[in-house]
Write a structure and sequence with these properties.
Layout (H helix, E strand, L loop, with lengths): L7 H5 L12 H6 L6 H12 L7 H8 L6 H5 L6 H14 L8 H17 L3 H16 L19 H8 L9 E4 L3 H5 L1 H13 L4 E2 L10 H5 L3 H14 L6 E3 L2 H8 L1 H5 L2 H8 L1 E3 H8 L9 E5 L3 H7 L2 H8 L3 E5 L13 H4 L1 H17 L8 E3 L3 H9 L4 E2 L1 H8 L6
Parallel strand pairs: 1-2, 1-3, 3-4, 5-6, 5-7, 7-8
Helix pairs in contact: 11-23, 14-18, 17-19
Length: 406
Amino acid sequence: MNILGLDDDELISCVGCGLCLPHCPTYRVTGLEIASPRGRIAAMRAVETGVAPIDAPFVDAMQECVQCRGCEAACPSGVPFGHLMEDTRAALELNAASRPTALAARVRRGLEWIGYRVVLPNHRVLIALSWLLLVAQRLHLVPKRFGPQRFGPPLLTRSSLMTKLDVSSGALGDAWLFTGCVMDAWQRPTHLAALQVLQATGLRVAVPGRGGDCCGALHEHAGRRAEAQHLARKVMQSMPGDAPIVVDSAGCGAALKQYGRLLGTEAATDFSRRVFDFSEFVVQRGVPATRATGRTVVVQDPCHLRHVQKSHMAVRSLLSDGYELVDTDDDGLCCGAGGAYSVLQPDLSREIAMRKSAALRAAGADRPGVLVCSANPGCAMQLTQAGFSVQHPAELLRDALKEGPR
């Protein structure tokens, strides 16, 4: 019947072996089959073939997935679960039967509309609201989990970023640094560190011109595909030419690398080939000379770096000369941040984060002076809230440069 519009070959590729179960954070928290990858795929099949309706339990099961894609790495059949979940959510977004009717749910959907349509794509609006959020947090009116953990007045405007390092918006350089929305508003120090490292390798760096405010990753995760496609086209126009595009947010990098699938055009595929994660790019170009800092760093692999981009080993190559690196023993299990997941599914997110925190503590991340390294802003905020000292690979490498940043 093709109710959800899923690819038949992708849908039947799951054989239900269950090897994905230990790698699924929601299954580990709940123990429910419907909260596992194979359970969700079985539910998709039932709806797609008309055996089951699109009802509230089905919608909840789809919305409660973190989309970490850890199941893909464990699957011997190569089931593209991420594609199935994205396509299912896109279908639900267009299906009136899946829309909430209760007042509270409708209010929440209205707030989501404001966030996705008004705030994220408009950088000035995001900056203004970030100021308000910062003030509200200082007055203890808003919980810290709803706001920026490393947000500060000195770097509120993009012009301050460009002036500090003598780059200009839209100026052609040897490489682009994609700045994005939330990352640019709340974690500007990471961008500064990334620019300093890239300049230390001898590169002239440009930041996106008009239209490069949001990559659309959160929109695609939420099933708002038309909006994600619109933002993707704007991002592509903001970084013309053929220079490589460096991304210091793992979630954004994964989204940009999948523009070819999102838009289905040759131009989008060519654009995606230009995209590199920060660590991936610097390792390929050649890591600048670093000094041994004597510090210990526990590496946390963001899901979209490990499972989607598959570039997580570059982080270790990037930092191995400057730091003693320690891995967790949880095989890269999700931290529960999941973009907007920690806000939309706070209870599940909290339970998942507790398991990740236990793995980090076991690796020694709770010892004085030990840092946690994370290449994704959502993960960094999630882990900072859990009490860990977190830094981005760009910041760690910048601090270990022998000659110091420019």
